Amino acid sequence: MKISVAFIVYNGAQYLRTQLDSILAQTHKVDEIIVCDDASSDNTKEILEVYKNKNPDLFLIHYNTQNIGPTKNIENAIQACTGELILFADQDDYWEAHKVENIVKWFKENPTMNGLFTNGSLMNSKDELDN
Length: 131
What we know:
Elements: E1 3-9, H1 13-24, E2 32-37, H2 44-54, E3 59-63, H3 70-80, E4 85-90, H4 99-109
Parallel strand pairs: 1-2, 1-4, 2-3
Helix pairs in contact: 1-2
């Protein structure tokens, strides 16, 4: 099963590395990370280029020339995905190490299902990740 990540970002430099590192550290690896940047004005592009240069076969990055908003941005990311399973990611998310593994297992055990929602934990700041 090919796994895609539809990842949207807008001025997400503050949390971007944490989220990308958590995706790359999954116990079940993803096959592609499709990033749609919505015309960020911070250093998001520079961060994304570092990750793409380290993982050129994993990342496909699209830079919008003007801000189109989150709904259209995620639509574009989904359309670019080529996997049978598409996982959504935002710039300020953090994935626990077994997230992809658990989702893949669930779909294998429930082959007639077309979608899955997962729980999240609300954190007040990036600092909580370090504690």
